[in-house]
Amino acid sequence: MSIDTDTLIDWFDTNGRDLPWRRPECTAWGVLVSEIMLQQTPVARVEPIWHEWMIRWPVPSALAAASQGEVLRAWGKLGYPRRALRLHSAATAIAGKHGDVVPADVDALLALPGIGAYTARAVAAFAYGKRAPVVDTNVRRAVARAVHGAGDAGPPSTGRDMADVAALLPANEALAARFSAALMELGALICTARVPRCADCPLHGDCAWQRNGRPEYAGPAKPVQRYAGTDRQVRGKLLDVLRGTAEPVDKARLDIVWNEPGQRDRCLDSLLVDGLVEQTPDGRFALPGEHR
Questions:
Q1: Is 70 a catalytic residue?
Q2: What is the CATH number for 15?
Q3: Dist. CA 23–CA 27, nearest whole Å
Q4: Active site residue: 35, 70, 278, 290, which one?
Q5: How deeply is 22 buried, as exposed, middle or buried, from its count of CB atoms within 10 A (0-12, 13-18, 19+)?
Q6: Comparing C-alpha atoms, which of 37, 41, 5 is closest to residue 21?
Q7: Which of 187, 92, 89 is nearest to 134 (CA)?
Q8: Would you say residue 226 lies in a domain?
Q9: Residue in 230, 220, 218 with CA at minimum distance from that of residue 263
Q10: Using CA atoms, how far apart are residues 202 and 74, in angstroms rounded to an integer?
């Protein structure tokens, strides 16, 4: 089964969100920044930070010229801060090897540091109108239901998932890019994981999941992500201290943020290993690149 291109795109033209990185004036650099920021982070949290970044660093070379510490400060509370350092590395490569212009070719995008299969194809499709299978969690779920009649997509497989979506794309490049954006929006707004809005779905009449009686997902259990008490929470608290001061801090300032010393020290060590924190010659701690 296929998905009717005109039906889906017509729905998207009427119902798609007006997001700044979707507007015609947005550069490929703006699209790339948005795609990195949106990984595992809701649009509402990303949009104000994205605007700040585009004003401060409108081209890759501007971000590349900033210190890693500046970048981490500007990343704020978006979470998963290694993404900020990966974006900084990609900006450096774009400025140095591509004339400060984000490449349009998927292979060239994949060659950039920190850019994976999803991001490369998303930039090619959404910034340059290329025909490329863009597969995220929302797309996988929508395809699993509409095409395969399953309640969800099950464990991811990059090769299989991309082939699955590639088979649905229109041959025309511009239409394929629009279709990719529409399919992702359908999964984000309508074909949601917990409470799908099937009555509002443009594909309702042709949906294989509907025809099958909307069976429950019966595959392997998905891991439940939690935050409270995890190393991720502790790492975030430690970084908050460093983002909140212009000077390096003693370890005692970091020790007070978490009362379990074993976990706290393990998390500090992991931040040092990941390059998100540096230790100064006098033994204090700071964001990278600010106090060498």
A1: no
A2: 1.10.340.30
A3: 9
A4: 35
A5: middle
A6: 37
A7: 187
A8: no
A9: 230
A10: 39
